[in-house]
Amino acid sequence: MTSGKQTALNRIRGFLRSGFARSDKRCSTNFIVVRHSPDWLSFDPESSRAFCAPQNLPEMLVIEFMAVWNAGVAVDYRQFRFRIKEIAQQTLASVEHAEIISDAALRALALAGKVPPDALVVFVDDDDWLAPHLFSRLREFASVGAGVDGFRWGLVRLGRDRYNLDDADAGFALHPTVILRPIDEEGIYTNGYAVSGAALGRLGVDAVCEHLDAYTSTKPGGSRPTPWHNISPVPTKHPAHNVAARALLDSEEYRRDLCPRKIEMSPHVQS
């Protein structure tokens, strides 16, 4: 690796370890909020129990999947998740005029009344990607003023076509692909929506931080996100993603294919 690339990588790693904090006076009204993100290098799988239950996932999902993964893959599960997080962070750091903060930091700002009504808040997981022009395009599309609760849009999903198949082995046999998921009548996807500061103040952070809760908040009396027919985010359903893990663990073919041998990962993930 060249010294220039190593310097850039070290800068990104330092950025990750600092909790996504970034100071930029120009972006005080555009927030990228990274939902709860573990320190993957020191991740304790036992801590995943408390995370899985609210997500309607089996309590032992991550614990069991880590054991299967580490038995069959040359790159440790923690190292893989950390590297995926680094790759995603490069896209977040390139988003123009945006401040990257944690969900805990957003709660503190909201409690202190420091989220302006015309702010735009986009929520992501630590493995999601965003386009650099996201906020500039959104603000070109419509001004964020009185009566604007936010926006929702389509996305490009990177991963297998469908994970929630009745036949887990058939799901495992699908090849990873890139899928265009255009906006529908009501859909709100994992990183496919923005909330205005005004709506955040009215509804509270917990009502919009997770996309399923954000969808519930669009019911009568809740928020009214404006459809934006554009594609700017990418959720990556990589092999260690919890949605993928749930489907793969149910596949006997996956267990047979993975466990007897160590699978070498791409050098782009290892480096």
Bin the strand percentage: 15-25%
Domain module tally = 1
> What is the H/E string?
HEHHHEHEEHEHEEHHEEHHH
> What's the β-strand tally?
9
Residue-averaged pLDDT: 76
Q: For the record, give the distance between the C-alpha atoms at the N and C termini, rounded to a whole number.
A: 9 Å
Report the radius of gyration as a whole number of Å: 19 Å
Q: What overall form do the CA principal axes indicate?
A: globular
Topology of this protein?
Blueprint: H1 3-17, E1 30-34, H2 48-52, H3 61-72, H4 77-93, E2 99-102, H5 103-111, E3 120-124, E4 128-130, H6 134-141, E5 150-159, H7 168-173, E6 177-181, E7 193-196, H8 197-203, H9 211-216, E8 226-231, E9 233-237, H10 242-249, H11 252-258, H12 267-270
Parallel strand pairs: 1-2, 1-3, 5-8, 5-9
Antiparallel strand pairs: 3-7, 4-9, 5-6, 5-7
Helix pairs in contact: 3-10
